[in-house]
Amino acid sequence: MGTSGPGQSVHFDVEELLATRLLVQGNSGSGKSHLLRRLLEGSAGVVQQVVIDPEGDFVTLADRFGHVVIQAFDHSEAEIIRLATRIREHRVSVVLALDELEIEQQMRCAATFLSALFDAPRDHWYPALVVVDEAQLFAPAVAGEVSDEARRASLGAMTNLMCRGRKRGLAGVIATQRLAKLAKNVAAEASNFMMGRTFLDIDMARAADLLGMERRQAEQIRDLPRGQFLALGPAVSRRPISVTIGSVETSARSGSPKLMPLPSAPPEDLQGLLFAPGDDLPPPPPPPRAPVPTSDDLLRAISKSGPVLTPAAPSNEPAMPDEERDAVINQVLREMCEDPEATYRQPAVLFQDFGVRCRMARLPQHGLDLAAFRRRLAMARAGLPDDLDEGWLDAMAIGATLPEDMLAPFLLVANAARDGREAPSDSLLAQVYGTHSQGRVRRLIAYMEEQGIFVLRTDLSGKRSINIPRLGWTTAATLPEAAE
């Protein structure tokens, strides 16, 4: 990695690093990205590398070391999941570039990508370094301006990486500008530390605690020059040592600002450039836009020969009867539930797909808003019949008290409990919940049990039955997938 004195080289034990993880901290300009680049270049031929790059600085690794660059802006959520699964299967070193996304989109994409890496099949648990630059963005200590949903998803994925990733071969290497901004349960799981220059007292105190130094010794962290770090951990040194990071072969696309000469033109010329009269004439109005054909117009034009597409005149046909309209909606929802990739898409994306499918089924106005669509989709995923009897009124009232994403798993259990069938397996609950993680399913069931909605009974053979006391419904006992 560098030197700690004349002729004293400092090395990282990569196998030990895979087992113990690394935390890098330093203010902007302290050399964190340079350190990460040195680590990635030195271990490029030794271990698979996955880089979460919010600024697009590490894409240059592709030219020298053959990393595959994934521009997140160009891919959908389903494609990100598919790419992450193939990355683990084929052991490809990649850089996930997030620089063209907004902060909340970066958090959502990183959460989806890391969760897919974490949920890979056991046969693909090969060792890999997962480097996350600017980790405080993805594991914030406090809520910020992003939505709670994005923050929880990103924080959960980072926590899984640092707390439980080792058994799956994933070794987290995270870098942050400020320890105070990084969630403590994420930072606490690292056993190796590289502490660079920092100025705030709270960050110096936390860095000193992690390095096992006394508070009065923390002042030296403020005096560290750029590119010099205090290192400690089983993969580098058993005692804190000062390391000057060595040179690198590649460079970031954006470097530190450098001084450059100012323009030497006379002041009157510069004034002329600034105050020159401009063309104050208003811009010409844009040409009128042609009417946009509807989906029905496009389908009609495809089905017959005709070179010109023109918008259709308003139809004078009577509105579709309510019964026929509901039948079309139910059929469309069933088709969406049969799509294996639809389970893991965002509700807003599914709602757009639902509208297109309805128009293709000759129902241009389905009459559902996003909230009503999510309820109807949850009912379809749970396999509820199209015509619900009065016995379901109480069940739907309980479902109305739950968050929208929990409605489908609840209705799936309620449907089995009403008929006395076996409790749904963990994998089936995960599918309707929209996750690959059975751990999230177990936490979901525990939450509903805490709320008094479910009562779980497990017999001596390990079989589980779920009772819904407010309804008096109970499933038959069966082994959950985790027990199998």
UniProtKB/TrEMBL annotation:
<feature type="region of interest" description="Disordered">
    <location>
        <begin position="276"/>
        <end position="295"/>
    </location>
</feature>
<dbReference type="InterPro" id="IPR027417">
    <property type="entry name" value="P-loop_NTPase"/>
</dbReference>
<dbReference type="Pfam" id="PF01935">
    <property type="entry name" value="DUF87"/>
</dbReference>
<dbReference type="InterPro" id="IPR002789">
    <property type="entry name" value="HerA_central"/>
</dbReference>
<feature type="compositionally biased region" description="Pro residues">
    <location>
        <begin position="280"/>
        <end position="291"/>
    </location>
</feature>
<dbReference type="InterPro" id="IPR008571">
    <property type="entry name" value="HerA-like"/>
</dbReference>
<feature type="region of interest" description="Disordered">
    <location>
        <begin position="247"/>
        <end position="269"/>
    </location>
</feature>
<dbReference type="InterPro" id="IPR014588">
    <property type="entry name" value="ATPase_Atu1862_pred"/>
</dbReference>
<feature type="domain" description="Helicase HerA central">
    <location>
        <begin position="5"/>
        <end position="104"/>
    </location>
</feature>
<protein>
    <recommendedName>
        <fullName>Helicase HerA central domain-containing protein</fullName>
    </recommendedName>
</protein>
